[in-house]
Design brief:
Radius of gyration: 17 Å
Number of strands: 2
Strand content: 5-15%
Number of domains: 1
Low-confidence stretches: 6-10
Shape: elongated
Number of helices: 3
Helix content: 55-70%
Order of helices and strands: EEHHH
Structural class: alpha+beta
Distance between the termini: 27 Å
């Protein structure tokens, strides 16, 4: 069952913390879906005219600033990867 918290960090900004429980199979499939969404969106934006003249080394940062849900996807992917690694380590023991 999912739980959520809303943290005020001043002004109009707030942080939302989600806690969800997935079985390992669900987590793996969700990670695959997140990866595909990130890759599709990044590829679509990366080669758009808007970023044509942005140097490659700066393009990723600019895209993430302009398309904030990609940052959310990226953070969620990292969290899932970490939890799946923990599960694999525990299973191996």
């Amino acid at each position: 069952m999912g739980k959520g918290k809303l943290h005020s960090i001043g002004g109009d900004m707030s942080k939302i913390t989600l806690q969800i429980e997935l079985d390992e199979q669900q987590a793996k499939h969700y990670l695959q879906w997140l990866n595909s969404q990130f890759n599709l969106t990044m590829a679509d934006v990366w080669y758009s005219d808007r970023y044509r003249n942005v140097p490659t080394g700066e393009r990723g940062t600019k895209v993430l600033a302009d398309v904030p849900h990609l940052s959310g996807i990226s953070r969620t992917r990292r969290a899932l990867e970490q939890q799946l690694a923990v599960a694999a380590t525990e299973r191996a023991q």
